[in-house]
Input
Amino acid sequence: MKQIVLFFLLFTLIFQAQSQNANWEDLFSYYSIQDISTGGGKVFAAAENSVFSYRRGTQEIEKISSIQGLSSEKINTIYYSANYNLLFIGYKTGLMDVYNPQDKTVLKVVDIIEKVTITPANKQINHFYEYENKLFISTNYGISEFRLNNLEFGDTFFIGDAGEQLQVAQTTVLNDKIYAATQEGGVRFADVNSSNLVDFSLWQNITNNSFRGVVTLNNTLYVINNNNSLQQLQGNNFINKDQFNEEIKDFRVNEEKLIVTTFNKVKIYNNQLSTLVNISNFNDFSPNLSSATIFQEVIYLGDLNEGLLAASTNNTSVFRYLSPDGPLRNDVFGLSVIPNELWVTYGEYNGFLDPYPLNSRGVSHLKNDEWINISYEDLGEKKNFVRTAINPSQTNQVYISSMYDGLLEVNDEELVQVYDQTNSGLQEAIRPAGTIVQNDVRVNGIAFDRDGNLWGNVSLVEKGMFKLNAGGGFQFFDTSEIVPDYFANNLGFTELIIDNAGNIFFGTSKDGLVGFQPSTNTFAKVSGNETTGNIPDNFVRSLALDNNNQLWLGTSQGLRVLFGPSGMFDNPNTSANEIIILDDDGVAQELLAGSSISAITVDGNNNKWIATEAGAFYLSSNGQETIYRFTKENSPLPSNSVTDIEIDEVSGKVYIGTRNGLVAFRGTATSSSDTFEKVRAFPNPVRPGYSGLVTIDGLREGANVKITDIEGNLVHEVFSEGGSVQWDSRAFGKHKVASGVYMVLITSKDQLETKVTKIMVIR
Output
């Protein structure tokens, strides 16, 4: 086997070792398989933005994702080179990743992306074909050559009649000729050993039709044309050999067998083109196949909904499901968390809160590290689920809001009730002309109060807020006075939260913040620009109450804070406050000015996680310090478009949902404890080279934490705002402390409880 020794020394690349991402966890969906490749005793399956391998002998599954350094773009094709023990991943953007299974490193190849003469749509990578020490890359602009012996790009071939770009679906080599299946350019060929393949005039064509694929089997050339006909090249003509009634999705040769895949059929031929296997009956599911192959007498199928499946050649009616456990989908909309549980929804609406076109997607539930996926069919075929609310006193009971079908009640992952216009008093949406939209009930924000009542809002109706009493029965509240244009174009209600006093707050898409005080049955509103409510935009997308009862507002154009939110019920002139910070040059600036903020979450230390279209921000409790900013470029975040963030207060794990997948970050902030029994410091010892923070958790809120050297000299002091604090292993933030044992002296806020622990520092 050839050894790659120049892996880190070549052209533009980004390297990320797995150890660098030890604080991250991949929670991607592996059920939408785009392509399959085999070799080295493994089957490699490409999902939407990640890959996994399945080893036949041990049945071991290994995930390969952004945690390992993959790019998390949309994958179009993959190829495993047995000669070089490398996995090549081709993306729709033109990016290419090279993964080394031996040392688990990733090389990002950006040469195609950086070609300024090629439009983004034409950069898509369609297929890899290995010949001798070269990899021919089929793209929407032509063919690029990649040299496997030194991992360098070679020439690029534009093979149109006049050297123009031509979409190439697949290539193969037969009798020293390279053949390319093209769209609208026929099958083109040239001498593969020519040193001048960049000369378009050397490329000849067979017909001018469009072709989906070209392969070589038993010294014979086969193609698939756009009429889904399997044809054989005889002389200069293509002879029909088989006809398919469905669009052919995949065409390949493996282990001297030719495999043709449509969305609902797999047909496998031997090298004489006699049919060996014909799979067309799927008893357990409705197929939506993307690819298939045969490997060591087992047929592997890639399905866009069911994941990777396997069947024996002797029994193609029984399938094994091989994809790793995971959520239904990657395009996350909303998250809800309680200790050791996470709920995920995949609904959507546009910037005007319009849910059309409606989607048909289920929801996912992660419980004790196991995924339970509830399908669209199991949820009564209701549509567009956006948020979940977990009953804090009965956590197996979960309510799901739908921006079309009202409110669903689920117990133990089973649908027990749907509340809509037929049985609850929930109203159907009203168009600006005053007409009712039949069967369209748009419930969005939902939350439980301390008494176990569920509150929610409904868009485009007169009674836009409801209360589902803990004992049963709905109560509705007229919101038409506080939001008089409730049926106007693009008006709707967003996230709803409840403070400790039972006051209700929710956002709107055009009218700012709405509040309701149940004790006085009073509505109030904060809206407008700098002259009134000081909200940068009246589209309030997200809300959060922090540990100081301050209300944080995330709008489509920035961030605001109400320091005493209940004051809005007494003062009609209440206005929000921006957060002013100093940039690196000492110039005052507004924090996150102009940013569209989709979620705000408060952790156990009263710090703030902010979800934006430019990544995830982790801010200090007052917003003055950015502790982290995670983006796709500097972390395993699969997309900069972050849709929601939630925190498990017991473990400190931070779940970050994006439009391209879900990840978890191992945070350090936890909720406060009742005692100091579980106080711990980690990492401990602090070893040479460690540059991160030391976390001390298991604290009570307001605890005083002093760190001294062994002689009693104070080096750090802090008060906990939640259940944990951090120390940068410096003496009052200046110089790193020397090696030695450091005492951690902890005193509760009421000074009735103390605790002592130790931290060893090794420099």
Remarks:
- Confidence is low (pLDDT under 50) at residues 1-20.
